[in-house]
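Fig. S4 source data, part A: sequence.
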Amino acid sequence: MRPSLSTTARPGSRIARRLSLPLLTSALLASLTLSASPAQAAGCAGADLLPAVASVPTAKSATLCLLNGERAARGLAPLSSDPTLEDAAQGYSLAMVQQRFFGHVSPSGQTITERLADYVAPARSWATGENLAWGQGPLATPAAIVRNWMASPGHRDNILNDEFNEIGVGIVGGTPSGGLPALTATYTTTFGARTTSAGSTTRATVASSASPSPAAKKSTAKKSTKRLSAKQKRAISKRCHRVASRTKASKKTRKARYNRCVRTKTRAAQR
């Protein structure tokens, strides 16, 4: 069985409006003849072991180690782990296994932008990307997954994107096709970059061919006073209830997730 891979990159900016590049085509690699660098794998503990054997935390560390090794070999700065991206990546890997789907949009229609609402909420400009994969047996190790991402142009572009500086790694035993957790694993790596200082922009704005006009800059610098209608509030509440209950969690966690979602979507609607 070959590992299944999928990738997307999505930049955006609050200076003008949220923008995105087209999703990169999902890829199923036809060949697995490439081999990982022995030296690189040896330097990342657990890289050649199944997550169920090495433990998920070890597999996550190995995956990040391997990705940063690929970046370092090309003179790029390392990615640092971000808790918000980490939670989103882990939750999405779990959702794909539990709900038996594989792709960047969930069966309920949730997109990467919606999953990362908490991450981009405080940013003036931002960029995010996502690589997905699942594998079985030797093809489910961190070394095998990273090796095959690097062999796919779209996945490789996300890994070597010098704009990204943060990452979340999510690994769950099992696959969207129902593989045994002890022998398989599903991976999500969520990349990010944010700019929060006033007047500065990220390269995502340039990549999206969008330059805000002076009027747009002026208007977005002001605090919004737009009032939402009762209909808009009900729509936000309904959507956030779905977001809060998308995965199993305690009542306290669901409530906190709901409140964050309402704040984020209300601010967005008031812009």
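Fig. S4 source data, part B ends here. The first strand starts at residue 4 and ends at 13.
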